[in-house]
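Reply to dn_fold:

You asked what the input looked like. This is it:
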Amino acid sequence: MLIKSLPVLTLFLTLTHAAALANPFTGIDTSDLAKRDCTPGCTCASGVSPGLYCGYCAAVTSCTSAGCFDNVYQCGNGGSCCSYGYRTSCANRQGPGC
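and this is what came back:
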């Protein structure tokens, strides 16, 4: 009985060993994506949750004219801010934040 199941057991062990060697958690290659530079100098309201906000949101306190409403900003802790420039969803008033 053991001899009849030996080929099946061998095949099972071979397949599980091969599956264990494969790394399913390989990193994503982002080398071909353009990175967006952060432009410091903006300010966010203190106490606002960290995240992305359009310039027309009350969270971005340094944006006071229509010229910056279409830009996206990242607010951090303590009023820190980073501008990433124009974003179509902000121009369409469908952006993040607010």
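The radius of gyration is 26 Å.
Hope that clears it up.
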